[in-house]
Amino acid sequence: MDQSAETAWAQCREIIQENINRQSFKTWFEPLKAQSLTEEDGLRKLTIQLPSRFYYEWLEEHYFSLLRKTITKVLGPNGRLFYDVVIEKENPEEPEHGASMQLPARRGDDVSPDASEAPPNPAEIDAPEGRRQESSSSRSRGSENQPSPARDGDPSAGPPGSQQPPVSNPFAIPGIQKAEIDSQLNSSYTFERFIEGDCNRLARSAAWAIAQEPGATSFNPFLIYGGVGLGKTHLIQAIGNYVQAKESVDTCLYVSSERFTTEFVQSIQRNRISEFSMFYRQIDLLIVDDVQFFSGKEKTQEEFFHIFNALHQSGRQIILSADRPPRDIEGIEERLLSRFQWGLSADVQSPGLETRIAILQRKAEDDGIELEQEVIEFIAHNIKSNIRELEGALIRLLAHATLHQRDLDLDLAKEVLRDLMQDMQVNLTIEEIQRIVCDYLDIPEDLVRAKTRKREVVRARQIAMYFSKKLTQHSLKTIGLHFGGRDHSTVIHANNTVEDQIETDDQFASMVEEIGRKIELRSR
Ligand SMILES: Nc1ncnc2c1ncn2[C@@H]1O[C@H](COP(=O)(O)OP(=O)(O)OP(=O)(O)O)[C@@H](O)[C@H]1O
């Protein structure tokens, strides 16, 4: 190791450290090593070693001005900075030798004081368009208020006779070329197809705002959390689909945290970690689903942490989802958890009845199916857990109707969704039945449990007993107890009376049927 180079670089690092935040310093400068300090033709050339071409790109784009000032301060006006870039091997079997490339800082542009204000030279690096623009603007910003910029990158200042090899596009690695990145988005997850309700209003509004200006709102990162099948994936992908359609970013990528982890592990096995890292650092809008799966995976978390920082620092948009609030996710490092909460966290909850109905109506419309309102309401009343199950019930119903050439009516819905109905019956309580019957007959609920033998109360009590026997698993004794401690024989008598009257009295029969429907729908 060249001692003087190390000392010079240590001084540079001190200055740099004072001028940028701790995390940026850790990410971009700590891995750099001094290689040599030489004097040639009156110039003092400090060469530092970079772990990959990506660092070269990044430093030039983001820290050019700072590096230039720092070198001038430490080495004087004749100071020049050179990079020795370690070239990532595509094939781990390749020999080590020759795996580096010397480059002058500033990619060979003339960065003399006069030239620094000039439009950027077409970069020798065949950098992707978006980044090139970003680079040029950061350069001109960097040159403002600059007391005496040094020519720290003039290619003519390179070693005599050294022809700099043209630097190839660092992203031109098979399979990860920027232009070729497939966003992995499901095109059917759009805002148009996402039904808004009280359960998801905040998340949907924030998602919409982000889609208008990715990376420019304070919702960065944006994290949506909530239970299974409640639309998290749909919503986060809707942002991606919208932004892609508007072409407001160059690259957008959706990845599940499981896939991210698998790819990362593979990159370790294949000795391609820096490639993996480079790939993710070029994404403008990164969507990571189900981040709770990072739990307990320390190395993956560390890699994601650095990627997160790099993207966030450069104003790229990060969108995340989790099955619970970030503070409740266990096994994730505090520094990463706190970053998850930097922007906005919004939850999605189970949809209310109206939203469930609206979702079913939309799904039926999208599939070109006409569904009677009572069928939609029947499904919506009975399937409350999540939207995926709601969709599943509809698909099941459609499949039966098509396969058995049946009408899509309430009878078919009851038949097909019987399992779900059975679940409902198991959960149905005697109190619920009493409430619905009394609501329907307009009788105070507590009277069916009281001693009174008024005619209309007796009728309500008998109908409630009949449904309790028919729709719950409770024993006759238990049912009797729920009706003011009556005997099991009273329940049998009530059941027989109702059954007989259904047979003989049509009006009564249709009233009981109507009450039965209300119980099935559990309507209030
Ligand atoms: N508000 C909504 N409007 C329309 N469809 C929705 C809505 N919410 C969810 N869906 C649909 O429900 C299904 C499940 O949603 P999604 O996969 O987004 O849930 P999730 O919350 O990501 O679940 P998981 O945690 O299991 O991944 C999808 O087909 C989605 O299109």
Write up what this structure looks like.
The chain contains 21 helices and nine strands. It is α/β, with parallel strands linked by helices. It folds into four domains: 155 residues, DnaA, N-terminal domain (GMP Synthetase, Chain A, domain 3); 148 residues, P-loop containing nucleotide triphosphate hydrolases (Rossmann fold, 3-Layer(aba) Sandwich), CATH 3.40.50.300; 73 residues, Helicase, Ruva Protein, domain 3; 93 residues, Chromosomal Replication Initiator Protein Dnaa, Chain: A (Orthogonal Bundle), CATH 1.10.1750.10. A five-stranded parallel beta sheet has the order 6-7-8-5-9, with helices on both faces. Strands 1-2-3-4 form a four-stranded mixed beta sheet. Strand 1 and strand 2 form a beta hairpin. Helix 19 packs across helix 20. The longest helix is centred in the first third of the chain and has 17 residues. Bound molecules: adenosine-5'-triphosphate. The site of adenosine-5'-triphosphate has 16 residues, from helix 7 and helix 14.
Question: Helices, strands, pairings?
Answer:
Layout lengths: L2 H17 L2 H7 L4 E8 L2 E8 L2 H10 L1 H12 L3 E8 L13 E5 L24 H15 L57 H12 L9 E5 L5 H15 L5 E5 H13 L3 H9 L3 E5 L8 H16 L3 E6 L11 H7 L3 E5 L4 H14 L6 H10 L4 H17 L6 H7 L1 H10 L2 H12 L13 H17 L4 H7 L5 H17 L1 H16 L3
Parallel strand pairs: 2-3, 5-8, 5-9, 6-7, 7-8
Antiparallel strand pairs: 1-2, 3-4
Helix pairs in contact: 1-4, 6-7, 8-9, 12-13, 12-14, 17-18, 18-20, 19-20, 20-21
The structure holds adenosine-5'-triphosphate.
The site of adenosine-5'-triphosphate (ATP) has 16 residues, from α7 and α14.
